Each structure stands twice: as C-alpha cells, then as structure tokens.
Amino acid sequence: MSKNIIITGGAGFIGFHLSKQLEKKGYQIYLIDNLSRGQLDLEFKNFIKKKNIKFIKKDLKKKLKLNIKNIRYIFHLAGSVGVENINKKPYQSLINNIITLKNIIDFNSKQNNLAKIILFSTSEIYSPLIKNNKIKFPLKEKNKIIFENENISRDAYYVSKAINEKLIQFSKIKHLILRPHNIYGPRMGYSHVIPELIKKILNEKNKKTNKTIIFSPNHKRAFCYIDDAVDQIIKLSLNKKIKNSVFNIGNMKEEIKVIDLAKKLKKTLFRKSKLIRGPITAGSPFRRVPDMNKTQKAIKKYKYTNLNNGLIKTLDWYLKELKR
Hints:
- Helix content is 39%, strand content 17%.
- By secondary structure, the chain is α/β, with parallel strands linked by helices.
- It has one domain: Rossmann fold.
- The mean pLDDT is 94.
C-alpha cells in the first residue's frame, strides 16, 4: 500500500519543515497551498522537484477533488492566520477556517480507507482564559474553552480554531488536535515576533529608523524551535496508538519577556539599538507557556534546542535571506 500524505498549507512555515522531515521517511507527499501566504521561494521550488513530492495549488474553500488513493495522514495547517490579516477581515477569516476543514473532512469521508486527520489548532485557544484569570500556568490541554461576550477582531482566529476542534471531534474521524505555542525558526516570514524584531533592529542599524519600539514588552512567551516542534508533531501523529486527543506542541523550559528577547537579538544584530518599551498589543495574552507533560509522556524522553542556539540558527538564515 502506498504511503501517501497530504499536507495543507504545505508552502507555509510549519508545513514546509514538516514535509521535509516526512519526505526523508519515504512518504509520497502532496503539498496543497493556494499561496495566499505560503512562499513559492527558491527553497520551496527546489524541494518540490523531489520525486516523492507533489505541489498542488488549490483553494480549499472550494469542494476538494483529488485523485489520490490510500492516504494515511492528512495534516491540516491551511487557513487564515496572522494578527494583521485577521484584524482586517475577521468574519471572512472565521468562515475560511471553518469551511476549509469541512471540505477536508468531506473529502476524507469519501475515501475507502479513512486517513487520520491531524488538525493544527492554536495556543490562542487559551487567551480568553488567561485574560479572565481562569487558568493556571503552564497551560494544560484539559482546560475548558470559553468564548467572551465582547469581541475584538483578533478573536476570530481563536474562535475559528475552537469551532474546528469541535468539528473534527463530532466528525468521528480518527484525528489528533495539536496546539502549537510560539514556534520559530528559519523561513517563518516576517509577521511573527522574532522576525519582526530582527527587521526592526536592522532597520535601525541601517538608519531607516532611530529607535526600535517593543510592543507588549513585559509579556512572557515560551518559544519552541521548529525542529523540536516538527519532531513532536511526527512522533505524535505517526503513532497508531495515539488518536482522538489534544496535545500542546512547544517548549515550556525557557520562558522569556519580549523585551529580554529583543535584548538578546540586539547583542547580535546592533548593540547600539535603542529599545523603547511600547504599548500592549490589543488581545495579546500577558503570558503564554504550555504544559508539555502530556506530550512528553507520549513521545518519551526529549531534549530541546535551547533558545540561544535556536536564535543563532534563525538569525543566520534571515541575515542570508535579507542579503539576497
């Protein structure tokens, strides 16, 4: 039987790194992306030339028709993401994320052998609980999900993911729900906190600005390097005994304030950078650190990439990329 895998959002950050590791295991991988946010860059173009990789440009908001048989796993990462993008189109983003999953479930339901669906949810699921002081840290998967009466545009993202979690559970299809927490590394675009800070500090170094404003400076985050995240994802997803459950993906060991993260980057990028504490970003949780005990128990002993080493690898990639 063929070892076929579908990865939606395959041109994106996690999707691309995930596909690279699965390709090494000999799977035939079908990457689906509409390229609304994913990058058709040189790195991706070279990757999809491999014989067991096929790229399919497709809009998942439309009914899914694919001539692919014997699919073992569907990793569903596609959807509307990014705070700026969600804030501009909250209603559309909410609908997009729900419809794309529904189309994936409908497609899978028509297969002779149903694939295991790995749904990528979000750490934002916990945000209302954090805001209302109804949760303890680190954040456990078993916490209840709540919706607030008053909405801000950013809420459309976590609401869509919460609905999707219930959608996959009610479908009765074998699945996993994964909640990534602040994953970082090479090729993650520029809309995440680390590449945003890199770009800001370099702009100051190149005299495009005379200071670097740090938003939500005292908010704490626990960052997880992409290789560690992908390893967790694969070990959980390919384990036949693990199904119909929720797992955090991340690293709970090195929590850091955003301002201290900026100071780390400043040392490497531009020591004279003038870091200015800015306002709190609307909707940003003051702390985010996952409880990884459930995940670590499932995947056994695990050694994480420490933040300093992960930042060095990330900086090396971005500095080369910005020189192109």
